[in-house]
Design brief:
Elements lengths: L2 E7 L5 E5 L5 E6 L5 E7 L13 E7 L5 E2 L5 E3 L3 E3 L7 E7 L21 E7 L1 H14 L7 E2 L16 E6 L4 H10 L3 E6 L2 E6 L22 E3 L2 E4 L6 E5 L5 E5 L10 E5 L6 H14 L4 E8 L17 E5 L5 E13 L5 E7 L2 H12 L34 E8 L5 E8 L16 E8 L7 E6 L5 E7 L4 E10 L2 E2 L6 E4 L14 E5 L2 E6 L13 E10 L2 E10 L3 E5 L7 E10 L11 E4 L58 E4 L5 E5 L2 E5 L5 E6 L4 E3 L3 E2 L6 E4 L8 E5 L7 E6 L8 E5 L9 E7 L2 E7 L6 E9 L2 E7 L6 E6 L3 E4 L10 E12 L1 E5 L10 E9 L5 E4 L5 E6 L2 E2 L2 E2 L2 E11 L1
Parallel strand pairs: 11-14, 17-19
Antiparallel strand pairs: 1-2, 1-5, 3-4, 3-22, 4-9, 5-6, 5-7, 8-9, 10-12, 13-14, 15-20, 16-20, 17-18, 20-23, 21-22, 22-23, 24-25, 25-28, 26-27, 26-29, 29-30, 29-31, 32-33, 33-36, 34-35, 34-37, 37-38, 39-40, 40-41, 41-42, 42-43, 44-45, 45-46, 46-47, 47-48, 48-49, 49-50, 50-51, 51-52, 52-53, ...
Helix pairs in contact: 1-2
């Protein structure tokens, strides 16, 4: 089965080891951007020591659990972590960018050629020339010693000649990461990392493989794809663009795209652009992106039962076949792959196909890094087109900055943040002289060291208040403001941080569903209101409809409604009870409690297949059944009305020489004949037999009652013959059944308890001839969740195991007793102690037990990897709290300096 895992590496070094117990992780692979890995890890778990210092973490995948592969963009830097000191579990949260993030730490220095207006010129340069200038010069200065690349000035990483050249001017201090992203956003290159090596290709070449031809990759709903939401927009559509650069450069470009309202225009203002070729490249990229509606197709994928797997069968940039709008299969490009693994070890994820929103958000984020000065497309030096402006004096910094954040719900129902910033007016310049202010500029960034600042508001000279929205809820932002005077930028104020509170209020509980059954299907209706006729709030998104078999609890979502209406549930067996309820969800993901439930069963009402009693007298017209429509001999006992056959019409003793039938003689019926009393179902299969000899056989469900404490034997819908024990209230049964598949030819009895109140635990007992098992399991997936016992003819195993692979186990057999796990002790108890200590650079050491022994113990130890490797060691002066440890060797009477890993075993009395 497809699986993913984490491996730790030393910074720019060798593999350190497996990180076996993350408390879930998520890794996102966007096309032409830096990937990100987030995970949580307990400081008490195995492998936590590898994360105690900066390191690299690699993500690997496997199809069989034996062969593991590190895919592209899967090496990450452990540079950000967080924890709560009050958390006794010691859980730390890690946020890791990809290895290529280090390109942020490479900046552009002056070259050998003279600067042009303070900028470094790249004239008719290939992307390889530009990037290699950053990288090679940085390594010559000692930066990124292990960073490698596979392209050069003339050919890309696929050994193909560069398709495009640019003439462009970059400001000094611009970082290589921003430049790399900039070139990708201009549709000049595609790139990715493989381990510590950067691969850069011509745009839409090596990272735009066509997987739509046989054998094509086709993601199918229900097999590879679980959920498939779509969003589309024409907001960025355009078929004409005006490019404005430095020194009066102006060019207009158009495309052949036909838009519904005719000509739509766009604008690109790019400082540093002054030649026709670069302007055309920028316009071409903009028009290609804006030629049609941009549609986001997010497809939730599952490795369970899927035919096509990420990385094995498709990768970032590939064109594949997948469900597009309306579910129709179309060629779509993979824009992002996200893989997740929860704390139970379940792997999932999603792919984003032709994602307009992702491309736009990346473009906007990179503009704040300094390349783009408020333009609508990427490229150029990032400075605004250079205007002539008078020079003035530098204004002093504003004081008293205060930012007030609020959370609101916009017209689309989404929670957004808004801030109002105020500050004191600036009256003086930096020398203390009076100054006239012509505007104030408010800047904002995520409150993270190193995050880029960007301008969000500009005010008039006398206005010291500014507002800005929308902002992401749950995010903390930093703000600063400065004044300008005659084009000269003043000193920034002190920073002010503000947190946009999250929306954590769920919608009202919906009213109970209205159920009806017709034509063999169930209709689940909702009136569009909350309990007590409450109106749904503006951020309401949908109600989810849930269904379960009340005799076999296990809720499943069967559909959703975004307004009053109904959904149709098909495929349910006739006559089997189904319980339904609703929950409401808002755009922030907050979910209400469940509504009141309702129960119904699907009823047969199709021609030729009507259920017993489903056609009543009200469905027949008066005089519709006449004598000429009754077949001779067709009126049997069931057709004779009450009190129509009286005793004076019958003999004292009736000798049964034929049969009496209630129902269809060839289908569902109850029959009395000379062999006894029998019953048959709709297919004519016998279900009840009470023979004249006294034997009784029943096929189907037999219950001791409809409610309360009761037994249900062979319940409807069960896959194995079983007995259910139901409590006095609720529908959480214990079950006992026979499973013939575990050991073919042998009846294995399985007993399971009801599910715990939290829905996470259930006791399971298996009785087989050579296998007896007791375990606590997770009822949703059957995986171990606590203590267990396994008894076989030749061994006994008892222990504890859970989904996080915490294993404590004793195994007994005729040859030995085995133990796996950790020893621990508390208080004054005796116990086996095991400890490992790293000793470095000394000649002798005092090693502490970290606890006090009752008596002076005897200790056994080994010393791994001694340096130098000829050393011999011995213990001296043991006490109840510590002992001395030193080398037996000496040089000129002085003990030898050594480094060693000491492993100790001792018995605590």
């Amino acid at each position: 089965m497809f699986d993913v895992r984490l491996i730790a590496y030393a910074p720019n070094g060798d593999r350190l080891g497996l990180l076996p117990h993350p408390l879930g992780f998520e890794v996102g692979y966007p096309l032409n951007d830096v990937p990100a890995l987030t995970f949580r890890y307990s400081r008490h778990a195995i492998g936590a020591d590898l994360l105690a210092q900066p390191c690299e973490v690699a993500v690997e995948w496997s199809e069989d659990g034996h062969t593991w592969t590190e895919p592209p963009d899967s090496r990450f830097l452990r540079i950000r972590r967080g924890t709560a000191v009050t958390d006794v579990a010691g859980v730390e949260a890690f946020e890791l960018p990809g290895y290529g993030w280090q390109l942020r730490k490479v900046v552009l220095f002056p070259g050998s050629a003279p600067l042009v207006d303070g900028k470094r010129a790249f004239t008719s340069a290939t992307p390889g020339s530009i990037l290699q200038s950053f990288l090679a010069e940085a390594q010559a200065r000692g930066s990124l010693p292990e960073f490698d690349w596979t392209f050069n000035t003339t050919r890309d990483s696929n050994n193909k000649p560069w398709a495009k050249s640019l003439t462009i001017y970059y400001r000094l201090g611009l970082d290589a990461h921003t430049t790399l992203i900039n070139l990708a956003e201009q549709s000049v290159i595609d790139f990715r990392m493989e381990g510590r090596t950067l691969h850069v290709y011509n745009a839409d070449s090596a990272l735009a493989r066509d997987r739509t031809a046989a054998p094509r990759v086709d993601l199918m709903l229900g097999r590879d794809v679980l959920d498939a939401p779509d969003s589309g927009t024409l907001e960025d559509a355009a078929n004409a663009v005006l490019v404005v650069g430095d020194d009066g450069f102006r060019r207009s470009y158009g495309s052949s795209a036909v838009l519904p309202w005719g000509r739509w225009e766009n604008y690109i203002g790019q400082g540093g652009v002054s030649d026709e070729g670069t302007a055309f490249l920028l316009a071409e990229g903009s028009l290609l992106r804006a030629a049609q509606e941009r549609v986001q197709h997010t497809r939730e994928i599952t490795p369970v039962g899927a035919r096509w797997l990420p990385w094995r069968d498709y990768q970032l940039g590939d064109k594949i076949i997948a469900p597009a709008s309306g579910g129709a299969l179309e060629p779509l490009r993979v824009r992002q792959i996200t893989l997740t693994k929860d704390d139970k070890g379940t792997v999932g994820g999603n792919v984003v196909l032709n994602d307009r929103f992702l491309e736009q958000s990346i473009r906007l984020a990179r503009r704040t890094a300094g390349i783009v000065g408020g333009s609508t497309a990427s490229g150029g030096s990032g400075a605004p087109p250079a205007p002539p402006s008078p020079r003035g004096r530098t204004a002093a910094k504003p004081v008293g900055l205060i930012v007030n954040p609020i959370t609101y719900v916009d017209a689309s129902g989404h929670a957004q943040g808004q801030v109002t910033a105020t500050w004191g007016p600036v009256l003086l310049d930096v020398t203390g002289e009076a100054i006239d202010i012509d505007s104030y500029e408010l800047f904002m960034r995520e409150n993270i060291v190193g995050a880029p600042w960007f301008l969000v508001a500009t005010t008039e000279p006398g206005d010291t208040t500014a507002t800005y929205s929308p902002l992401l809820v749950g995010q903390e932002y930093a703000f600063k403001v400065r004044a300008t005077s005659q084009g000269v930028k003043g000193v920034f104020s002190d920073e002010y941080a503000a947190l946009i509170e999250v929306d954590d209020t769920p919608p009202p509980v919906p009213t109970a569903p209205a159920l009806s059954a017709r034509l063999g299907v169930i209709h689940v209706g909702w009136e569009g209101l909350g309990f007590g006729s409450a109106q749904m709030p503006a951020d309401f998104h949908r109600v989810r409809a849930w269904m379960q078999d009340p005799l076999a609890p296990g809720a499943a979502e069967v559909g959703y409604l975004q307004a009053a209406g109904s959904i149709v549930v098909t495929g349910q067996p006739y006559g089997a009870l189904r319980e339904f309820w609703l929950t409401a969800v808002d755009h922030a993901g907050n979910e209400s409690g469940p509504s009141a439930s309702a129960v119904i069963a699907a009823v047969q009402l199709v021609e030729g297949d009507a259920a017993d009693e489903s056609i009543t007298t009200g469905a027949l017209a008066a005089n519709a059944v006449t004598a000429d429509k009754i077949q001779a001999g067709a009126i049997e006992a069931s057709h004779i009305g009450a009190n129509q056959v009286t005793a004076d019409k019958l003999a004292a003793i009736l000798a049964l020489v034929t049969r009496i039938v209630a129902g269809d003689p060839n289908a569902a019926r109850v029959e009395l004949n000379d062999d006894g009393l029998t019953a048959y179902d709709e297919g004519g299969v016998q279900t009840v037999d009470v023979s004249s000899t006294g034997a009784v056989s029943i096929v189907g469900q037999l219950a001791t009652g409809l409610t309360g404490n009761r037994l249900v034997i062979n319940p409807t819908g069960a896959t194995q013959p079983e007995i259910r024990f139901l409590p006095g209230s609720g529908t959480n049964p214990a079950r006992m059944y026979v499973d013939g598949s575990m050991y073919p030819g042998e009846a294995t009895v399985v007993t399971v308890s009801g599910v715990s109140g939290s829905g996470t635990a259930q006791a399971r007992v298996v009785h087989a001839a050579t296998d007896y098992r007791i375990a606590i399991v997770n009822p949703t997936n059957g995986l171990a969740g606590g203590g267990y016992l396994v008894a076989k003819p030749n061994e006994l195993e008892v222990g504890y195991n859970d989904i996080s692979a915490n294993l404590q186990r004793f195994k007994f057999n005729a040859a030995s007793t085995q133990f796996a796990g950790k020893w621990s002790f508390s208080g004054s108890e005796a116990g086996l102690l095991m400890r490992s200590v790293s000793l470095s650079g000394g000649s002798s050491y005092s090693v502490n037990w970290t606890f006090t022994m009752v008596t002076i113990p005897r200790v056994v130890f080994t010393a791994d990897n001694p340096i130098p490797d000829r050393l011999a060691f011995h213990m001296r002066n043991p006490t109840t709290t510590n002992f001395s440890f030193r080398s037996s060797e000496s040089s000129l009477g002085a003990p030898t300096q050594f480094t060693v890993q000491l492993n100790m075993w001792a018995w605590r009395m």
